Amino acid sequence: MKKLIILCGASGTGKTTIQNYLLKQYGIPRVLTHTTRAKRKGEKDGVDYYFETPVSFAEKHYFESVTYDGKQYGSSREGLERAWKKNPIVSLVVDTAGAIEYVKQLGKQVDVWHIEVSDKKMLKDRLLARGDNVHAVEQRINSFESQRDLQIPPVIQDNTQVIMNDCWKKTTQLIDQLIQKR
Ligand SMILES: Nc1ncnc2c1ncn2[C@@H]1O[C@H](COP(=O)(O)OP(=O)(O)OP(=O)(O)O)[C@@H](O)[C@H]1O
Ligand SMILES: Nc1nc2c(ncn2[C@@H]2O[C@H](COP(=O)(O)O)[C@@H](O)[C@H]2O)c(=O)[nH]1
After folding, report:
1. Which terminal residue of the chain has fewer beta carbons within 10 Å of its beta carbon, N or C?
2. Closest among 93, 113, 97 to 105, alpha carbons compared
3. Among protein residues, the one whose CA lies closest to atom 25 of ligand 1
4. What distance in angstroms lies between residue 109's CA and the mean position of ligand 1's atoms?
């Protein structure tokens, strides 16, 4: 059965870092999504996201879409199928609203990993270390969506694996166990 690993959790917990590890270590392709937010330093169109204008975003058809911290994000069935053509297990980074939608629509094909840190004070430092500007970090951390995504939504609690990402070495050990269990 084709499988989708969904990575969700608050901003700065390490979703993208884990997604990159899955690609590098296990060849698990990333499902690319679309956004209207500005590129961060080093990000490339078609590699990190499909970067859209509000007009081009509205022209696409989405499996699900959300507004997060004032910007639009959406994922498509085509993006998922494209990744599944490369490998039977793929990964996708979405917010918890997106995770709920994928579990609802794809059921057992989806494994949800909720990425967490034990002290949320770490998040600000991590986002600053990533190179985000102070204003953007404050806004992002205090956004309704990032605060909400600190917790697993009760509706997907039973389908969700917690990944505590305080220490990168421990995180990779847990991920290695989860992947090898397959
Ligand atoms: N275990 C860790 N220890 C220290 N730093 C980490 C760890 N995991 C990730 N980071 C760093 O934290 C920063 C944020 O990570 P990342 O971009 O993966 O977060 P994210 O959850 O995808 O955030 P966002 O939702 O804002 O895109 C990056 O600079 C990354 O290198
Ligand atoms: N529901 C969806 N959430 C998405 C999608 N693409 C990304 N995201 C989530 O948005 C926030 C912010 O991302 P960032 O790259 O600006 O930090 C984060 O939680 C992502 O997981 C999507 O297509 N659908």
Report:
1. N
2. 97
3. 11
4. 26
Q: Are 142 and 89 in contact (CB under 8 A)?
A: no
Query: Given this structure, which CATH class describes domain 1-29+87-182?
Result: alpha beta
Q: In this predicted complex, what is the ipTM?
A: 0.98
**Sheet with 71-75: strands ordered across:** 50-51, 34-35, 71-75, 64-68
165 touches ligand 2 (CB under 6 Å): no
**pTM, rounded to two decimals:** 0.97
pLDDT in tens, the chain (182 residues): 999 999 999 999 999 999 999 999 999 999 999 999 999 999 999 999 999 999 999 999 999 999 999 999 999 999 999 999 999 999 999 999 999 999 999 999 999 999 999 999 999 999 999 999 999 999 999 999 999 999 999 999 998 999 999 999 999 999 999 999 87
Q: Answer yes or no: CATH 2.60.40.3080 is held by domain 32-86.
A: no
Q: What is the number of the ligand closest to the CA of 169?
A: 1
